[in-house]
Amino acid sequence: MEAANLSVAATGVALPLGSEACSIGPSPGGVVGSTPGGAALPGREPPFSVFTVLVVTLLVLLIAATFLWNLLVLVTILRVRAFHRVPHNLVASTAVSDVLVAALVMPLSLVSELSAGRRWRLGRSLCHVWISFDVLCCTASIWNVAAIALDRYWTITRHLQYTLRARRRASALMIALTWALSALIALAPLLFGWGEAYDARRQRCQVSQEPSYAVFSTCGAFYLPLGVVLFVYWKIYKAAKFRFGRRRRRAVLPLPATVQVKEAPQEAEMVFPARRPVVAFQMSGDSWREQKEKRAAVMVGILIGVFVLCWIPFFLAELISPLCACSLPPIWKSIFLWLGYSNSFFNPLIYTAFNKNYNNALKSLFSKQR
Q: Which residues cross the membrane (predicted)?
C-alpha cells in the first residue's frame, strides 16, 4: 500500500513522506509539488523548506540508529559464546530482520518519498526487489516478536516439559516458519502472478493492489501475529500471577516454629536459630526466581506493547480505508508508516534494557576494542 505525501501548507511546499514500504493495501495516488499560488508543477522537484530538511534529517538518523543498534546486538550475540542458545537465537533472528529493514527498505522508501509525485525512477527489477524485501523483512520482524512471546510463555507454563532440548527445537522451528511465511507473503505476487508492483506508465512502485492479496498479506503479516501475541501475553500474565501467589502462600510456612517456641520455651533458643536460616534461604531462592521471571514478563510485555503501538495505526488505516472508500490525510499516512518502521529501532533497546548480560557484553566488547 502506499502512504501519502507530507505537505507543508504554511510554506506551500509538498514533501512526499510515505511509501509502499510494509504496505499491503490500496491507497490513493500521490501529490506533486505545488507553488505558493496552488498551481501544480508536475515533474518539477519542489524546493525544500526548513521543516522538510529537519524531517529528512530525523529520518536519516532513525535509519542509521536502527541499523547500527541492531548490528551491535548481532555482533554481541555472535562473539559471546554464552549467547549461542535460546532465547538469544530468537533475538538474533529479530535483529537480522530489523537490520535488513534499516539497510534495504527504509533508505529506498525515503528516496521514493523525496521524489516529485513519488515517481519510481530506478527501474522495474529494483522495484520488485525493494517491494519483496519490504514485505519480507517487516513481516519477519513482526513474527519474530510473536516467537519471543511464545518462547517466554512455554518457559513459564511448561517449565518441566520445556527442557533445553525441546526449547532449542521449538525455537529453530519458529525461526524457520517465520522466514518461510514471510517469504511466501512477499513473493506470492511474483510466483503466482498476484498483481503487479511496477507501473511503467505512471512510474509507480507499490505492493500489489489486488484486493485478495491485500487481505491475505495484511492478515498474515500483522493481524494473525497480533492475535498470537495478545493471547500469549494474557496467558503469561495469568500463569505468572498464579505462580507468584502460590509462592507468597508458601512463605507463611514458619508458623510451626512459633508454636514450638510457645510449647517448649526452654528450647526456643535452639529451635529458632536452627530453623530461621533454612526459611530465609528458601525465601531468598524464591525471590530470585520470581524477580527473574518478573523481569522476563515485563520485557515481553513492553516488547509487545511497543510493537502494537508502532504498527496498529498503520494497519488499521490500511484495513479501514478500502472498506469505507475513504482516506486519511496524507500527513497521517506518512506518520503511521514511519511509526511502524520505528519498531525496528525500539526492539534492540528493549532487549538490552532488560538484560544485564547484554549490557555487560557490550561494555566488554567496547573495552576490548580500546
A: 50-78, 90-110, 130-150, 171-192, 212-234, 296-315, 335-354
Could you give the CA distance from residue 129 to residue 293 in angstroms, rounded to a whole number? 42
Q: Which three cell numbers stand for residue 355?
A: 538484560
Q: Which of 8, 108, 10, 7 is nearest to 59 (CA)?
A: 108
Q: Among all chains, which residue has been given the C-alpha cell 491507497?
A: 27
pLDDT per residue over 225-242, tens digit each?
A: 999 999 988 888 787 676
Q: What is the pLDDT of residue 322?
A: 63
What structural domains and CATH numbers belong to the chain? 51-249+295-362 (1.20.1070.10)
Ranges of beta strands (E only) in the chain are 6-8, 13-15, 198-199, 204-205
Q: Which residues pair with 52 in a beta bridge?
A: none
* DSSP classification of residue 10: T
| Cβ–Cβ under 8 Å, residues 257 and 211 | no
